[in-house]
Amino acid sequence: MRLTPDTRRNPRFSAAGLLLLLVASCGGTVEGVEGVEGGQGGESGAGEAAVGVHVGSYDRMKETHDAIHAWRAANSRAFAGKSWEIYGDWSDDPAKLETTIVYLLK
Phi-psi region for residue 27, left (φ > 0), alpha (ψ -120 to 50) or beta? Predict the structure, then answer.
């Protein structure tokens, strides 16, 4: 997902750089990245997913994870045990970093 100025005007997009969505996941295989330490492949699973888009420095991604966990609790949902992060294009400017965080739901 790419955030555009129009997306950022969406009322679900907060000034803190967070967009929370509930999406249907079709599932698939995630390939590991050769030569990247900690890069792992696996099955993503299928079903609904809670998705948060973190915009900003990686050292603040916990705030987006925490917001997804708060949404799950407030909406009486359960995680299915799988989550993943999708990193956008690299930038030396932390304000331009975008990471999509996905939690599969039961």
Answer: left
Helix (H) or strand (E) holding 102: strand 98-105
How many C-beta atoms lie closer than 10 Å to residue 44's C-beta? 17
Residue with the two structure tokens 């304000």 = 95
Token pair for 85: 């992060």
Q: Other CB atoms closer than 10 Å to residue 21's CB: what's the count?
A: 15
Measured in whole angstroms, how far is the alpha carbon of residue 83 from the centre of its chain?
Answer: 9
pTM value? 0.66
Tokens of 68: 């997804």
> Using one digit for the tens of pLDDT, what is the confidence trace for 2-16?
434 444 444 444 434
Non-local (6+) Cβ contacts of 57 within 8 A are 94, 97
